[in-house]
Amino acid sequence: MNTPVPPGPDAVIDLAVVRPLHDEVAELPLPESLALLRERLDGRLVIAGDAGWDADRAAWNLAIDQRPAAVVVAASTDDIAQTVRAARGLGFSVAAQATGHNAGPLAHGGLADVILLRTSELRGVEVDAEARVARVEPGALWADVVAAVAPHGLAALAGSSHDVGVVGYTLGGGISWLARSHGLAANQVLAIELVTADGVQRRVDAEHDAELFWALRGGGGDFGVVTALEFRLFPVAEIVAGTLFWPIERAEEVLQAWAAWTTEVPDSVTSIGRLLRFPPMPELPPFLSGQSFVVVEAAIQESPARVDELLAPLRALHPAMDSVHPQPTAELLQLHMDPPAPTPGYGDGMMLSSLPPAAVRAFLEAAGPDSGSALLSAEIRHAGGALAPEAARASAAERGAPEPGVTAGFAAEYLVFGVGIAVPGTEQALAASLGRLLSRVEPWRAELDYLNFSEQSRPAERLFGDRIERLRAVKNAVDPTGVIRSNHPVGR
């Protein structure tokens, strides 16, 4: 694979030797310090009042009002290093962000002492088809990766939406439509390049700075600013996938059948049971606009004939619509019907240890057809299979792959997530509906939550359990003064 020349595996590049910016800005008032940083950038720096300020500070979730001290839109890896070093000199923090998905916890505590570092213009993707490896820049979206790998008959463990950033998704774990057969995306990472809080650019992997490599894979963005990611691809060119729709009034019948079905299907099946209330929007097809459904979304790595056998119990319920068909894996980016553009939202998730009939009834009491729920979507994702930590470790050992990182998988069988569109006047109804959903399924809550689906702040112990002290040791080693800030910090 022809790549830009990154640092060698044993090399560190102390950019402060070249440009001691952190020392210079420490001696200047803030406006002059930011002006000096602006001069050193290949990209741009904006502050409140500048043209482009509102666009550059906006998160993907438009309900999140990010007001940092400044925004740097990086145009190079050097911009990232310069920004980190300047922030360190100013006593500020740096928060890296490609798209701003799951930005709520980051903004919750205020960003007045933070430089928001946007990597959204660094979207390069390089593919070594023979080695089945991709290398991506920090702002790459899953749409960029899928477009690059699909012509080679390859698939990445991509998210369910085309415009989710690859780096943030992967650092948090990464649940794809191939998750029950292939595990978390973080487990397929081969190497990570990043700038740590000292302004040093590093390349880490299983043999070089292994403890930092462990923390980055599933521990989130609290350990440095990633400048490149290398990960394994898979020869999965086609899949059978689609959605079964029923009127929402049949939610009890359908979701109970789906929950029972998930206990019997092989790991080649990844599926979601979901309640959808589409708003009346002209951009939606007439058969969806203003309508409400209970749906089952599924991606199945089997022959069409075998898929028909597997889906027979659900099709016996006579869905009103059935879009399941053989398709290129690239089409999976459309399966979950996520909004095609930034949207104001309010949501949160929870892992479940099991999903007995009583749990399904509790879910429906909170979000079903008679609940009065204000949520646009309330879903239950089937986990298990290769998402189990022991399965992930066994798979890595069999393949000679790196041992999984801090989040190898989940000791949980299902994941609940609820979300609504946060237009003015709906805030209280959304908060009440989401709180009711999560409280009703609380009796089946797993011990830990999943970072990427935790859109409200929570203690780090809730995400990492007894691994938190090891994570904090890594954080203290690479960032003792807290220069790097993430949406879910591990704490010190």
Classify the oligomer: single chain
Distance between the termini: 39 Å
Number of helices: 16
What global shape is seen? globular
Outline the low-pLDDT stretches: 1-19
Biggest sheet, open or closed, and with what strands and sense?
8 strands, antiparallel
Describe this structure in words.
With 492 residues, this protein is an alpha+beta fold. It is built from 16 helices and 18 strands. It has helices at residues 21-26, 30-40, 53-57, 77-90, 104-108, 142-149, 166-172, 179-182, 210-219, 251-262, 304-315, 357-367, 389-399, 427-440, 461-464, 468-478; strands at residues 12-14, 44-46, 70-73, 93-97, 114-118, 125-128, 133-136, 189-195, 200-204, 225-232, 238-247, 269-277, 292-300, 321-322, 325-328, 345-352, 377-382, 414-421. The strands form three sheets. Strands 11, 12, 13, 14, 15, 16, 17 and 18 form an eight-stranded antiparallel sheet that branches. Strands 1-9-8-10-7-6 form a six-stranded antiparallel sheet. The chain has a four-stranded mixed sheet with strand order 2-3-5-4. The radius of gyration is 22 Å and the shape is globular.
